[in-house]
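ok so i was messing around last nite and threw this chain in just to see what happens. nothing serious, just curious
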Amino acid sequence: MATKIRLKRIGRRNSPFYRMVVMDSRKRRDGAAIEQLGWYNPIDTDYSYDLDQDRILHWLGEGAEQTDAAKKLLRSAGISHRWHLMKQGLNESEIEKEMKKWELNREDVLKSRTERAEKKAEEKAKVAIEEKEALNDEVPSESEAESVEAGEEEKQEGDSGNDATEVPVDESDSEESTEDESSSTEEE
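result:
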């Protein structure tokens, strides 16, 4: 039987939770498992997995293949490194020494990753602040220019507004009005 070590989803919608299981490779993802080897919670970053190392190594010895996701999880837990050392034929004391070295190296790697992430976040924050300051510096100069332009437009509108309030005097209208006045006086 071709067995695989893979993840079986058991979480509800939008809350994934997985069990690491050994199952026949011909079965569906959430089908019946031969054995449960641990669990994986991708949402919780602090305590995201718990694996049974002895049973995983047993099944790897039996010829079970790992899926890509299971392989990544085993690599982060250090089980893949232990399996590699076992395949090389090292005895238990040598394997334990190498695993301690691996754990120390893993701690350094994780520290450097967090430091890099913090530096990157600080740089992004600095860049964002600088961009805001640059925009703030440009905005007042633009608003000053706009206010000057607006003042000029108001002056132009004020000049044209005065023309609009003045009524144009038409001489023909004034003559008619005087003729009407004279005719009204003659009739009396």
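not much to say yet. The CA atoms of residues 3 and 63 lie 7 Å apart.
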